[in-house]
Amino acid sequence: MTLYGQAASDAGLDEFVPGAGPDLMAVAALRAAITQLQLGDATAATSLAQAAAAGGGLVGAMATAYLSAIIANPDAAAGCAALNDVLAPRAAEWGAFWEQFGYALPEFRSEQICPF
Question: What is the model's pTM?
Answer without folding.
Answer: 0.81
